[in-house]
Amino acid sequence: MSLRTLMQEGSSKVNDLFARLSDTTEGAVKTREKLFGELKGALELHANLEEEFLFPLLRKNSETRGLVVEAIADNKNLRAKLTELDTLPKNDEAFIPLLAELQKAFRQHARDEKKELLPAVQSALSAEQVQKVTEKMEASLAEVEQARQEEAEERRAKARREREQAELEAEAADRQQQEREAAERRSRETASRVANAAAMPLDVAAEATGKVARLVTSSLRAEEQATPVRAPAPTRPSASAFTDMFLWPWAGAMQGLQQGRQTGPSGTRAPTSQEEVIPLGEEVLEVTKRTENRGTARVRRYVVETEVEEQVTLQSERVVVERRRPVSDKITGEILTEVTVEVVETAEV
Fold first, then answer.
1. CATH number, domain at 32?
2. How many helices, marked H, and strands, marked E, lie in the chain?
């Protein structure tokens, strides 16, 4: 690859980035940031190649030192505009106008490089020296490209690690949710068993009360049948009274049974004036509630960049010069006059 071709490839890449960046809108902030990063890297690389490989050769020649001063001033101006764009928000209204100024300045720099710098280098050096300089520049470009690929691979690896970490966190959150649901289910089952166990003593007590009431009733009936003549006695507790009692009715029933069976010397029941006191029981159930922390859910959104490729049609413009019969100037009548016409060939890469 020749020196001219090498430098023109860099200029073509920069012009392509300018065109793609100019077509973006204010809403495409991510796209602008990505394209501007590539443009900044390409401009810095182009300027560094000139300053590292071309300018030292031109400084050795007294006739080309002035070109070096002008080129350094152009690079300084490009870097200043680039820094201004770098600090500007990418969705700012002034971004596109400043980008157009930077593009205009680079185009002028590329024209000066093509018309003045490169011809001066080729005239000051031999073909062998120019080829050596070209090879050094190609090696430097290869190193930069290798570093760029390694950086891109590192970004992809980092995005992959972040994605895997997010998946692990999501799986852990799902497991925690399942464990919480299982714990709640076990708690409900335990509460149900406790409630059932608490209801069982009530049923047992009711059944025992019924048995005691039936026992007292049968005892009283047997006593009435065995004693034909009896003295008046206080009213005995009825069976329904025993049935309405809970726990203490057992003691009261046994006491009433003993009093009913007490008889005098004649075989009759002795009257009694003692009062029977039945204590009452009361249970108070207090129900409270509390708030428990059941965990924290975290939702995270991240951007994953994927490189894509697309086939596009490239266009190029070539300059074709055709010789025709000369014509005389209508005003001066002269035929042999000097005329310079400059036409730029362009190609999309």
1. 1.20.120.520
2. 9, 2
3-state class (DSSP) for residue 57: helix
pTM of the model: 0.46
Residue 343: predicted pLDDT: 81
CA-derived radius of gyration, the chain: 53
- The tokens 């951007």 sit on which residue? 303
Segments of 54-179 assigned E as strands: none
Which backbone phi and psi does 211 adopt, to 5 degrees?
-65, -45
How confident is the prediction for the chain on average, in pLDDT?
Answer: 77
Reported as a pLDDT band with limits 50, 70 and 90, residue 284 is: confident
Rounded Cα distance, 118 and 167, in Å: 55
Q: How confident is the model at residue 114 (pLDDT cuts 50, 70, 90)?
A: confident
Q: How many domains does the chain have?
A: 1
Torsion of CA 133, 136, 138, 144, to 10 degrees: -140
Tokens of 243: 């049935």
Q: What is the secondary structure of 289-310 as a DSSP string?
A: ----------------------
C-beta separation of 246 from 201 below 8 A:
no
Any domain includes 75: yes
Q: Which amino acid, 320?
A: V
pLDDT of residue 204: 59
Question: Contact at 8 Å (CB) between 85 and 36?
Answer: yes
Q: Is residue 65 part of a domain?
A: yes
Q: Which of 44-53, 60-69, 115-124, 221-230 has the lowest mean pLDDT?
A: 221-230
Q: Is residue 302 part of a domain?
A: no
**Residue environment code for 311-324, b if the CB has 16+ CB neighbours within 10 A, otherwise e:** eeeeeeeeeeeeee
Identity at 107, one-letter amino acid code = R
**Residue 83 is part of which domain span?**
1-125
DSSP 102-140: HHHHHHHHHHHIIIIIHHHHHHHS-HHHHHHHHHHHHHH
Question: Which residues on neighbouring strands pair with residue 257, listed in sequence order?
Answer: none
Q: Is residue 30 part of a domain?
A: yes
Please tell me which of 102-106, 134-138, 260-264, 296-300 the model is most confident about, judged by mean pLDDT. 102-106
